[in-house]
Amino acid sequence: MRLATWNVNSIRSRVDRVEAWLQRSDVDVLALQETKCKDEQFPEDRFRALGYDVAHVGHSQWNGVALLSRVGLSDVQVGFPGMPSWSSKEGVEPAQEARALGATCGGVQVWSLYVPNGRTLTDPHLQYKLEWLEALRVHAGGWLSEDTEAQVALVGDWNIAPQDDDVWDISVFSSSTHVSEPERAAFRGVVEAGFTDVVRPYTPGPGVYTYWDYTQLRFPRREGMRIDFVLGSPALTQRVTGARIDREERKGKGASDHAPVVVDLAD
DNA sequence: ATGGTAGTCAAACTA
């Protein structure tokens, strides 16, 4: 089984590229983040025509996560228990955002995750990010406590660079989110709960990234960040036979600022 | 030159 994750930065502006990529990538399950649309705007017919079942959650032009699967799509869950809420404006009741979607695909519990950005080190959004990751750690860790053989994949845009060589120049990030110790500790918490970065062994650094900012010629300068991850439970990690980051997809007009991350699993 | 790009939705916000 081949599993992939991709922050597409708007599915409506990217649907042609995603479709073309699916047609040549032989992917069984694709998790999407930042679809930036409501459910009724998601172009599910385009993917159904390629043989994929589709699940999506999106409430507005922000966030939005989806799962495409041609190996079954059942037990769809919108959000995870205890997922924190967020309100962008004072006076507006906080609500759960479209940042997590889970389903069973080919016997694997796959979660498409779009971790909150954090924005700046002093922004309340950073606290929201940390609380969101802590809630994920608690519940994903709980699944493993209940079933040590559980096949779970936590995939998506984590908005964290866990190690210094996951960014092109750590000195540029001294006052930035994504590399701060609290964020890295939150990421480590998920790892220590039993989830492993299954891609890194097949894509060793330094200089290997999944995201390049649109500005400042970051991509041609090879100035990126490794912030998109596939974290596997022990039973899933055992099945991994290969992985790659499809850097080619960051090239050309109409590219997302993230590249797809692909993992191969033994049957 | 005090910016630089891209997306959503049409001024400002998010990344």
TrEMBL record:
Top enzyme category: hydrolase
Region annotated Disordered, chain positions: 248-267
Cross-referenced Pfam families: Exo_endo_phos (PF03372)
GO molecular function: double-stranded DNA 3'-5' DNA exonuclease activity; metal ion binding
Domain Endonuclease/exonuclease/phosphatase: 4-258
Keywords per UniProt: Hydrolase, Magnesium, Manganese, Metal-binding
Active-site positions on this chain: 114, 157, 258
Site feature location: Transition state stabilizer: 159
Cofactor note: Probably binds two magnesium or manganese ions per subunit.
EC number(s) on file: 3.1.11.2
Gene Ontology BP, a term: DNA repair
Region forming the signal peptide: none
Interaction with DNA substrate, annotated site positions: 258
Annotated coiled-coil segments of the chain: none
Protein known as: Exodeoxyribonuclease III protein XthA
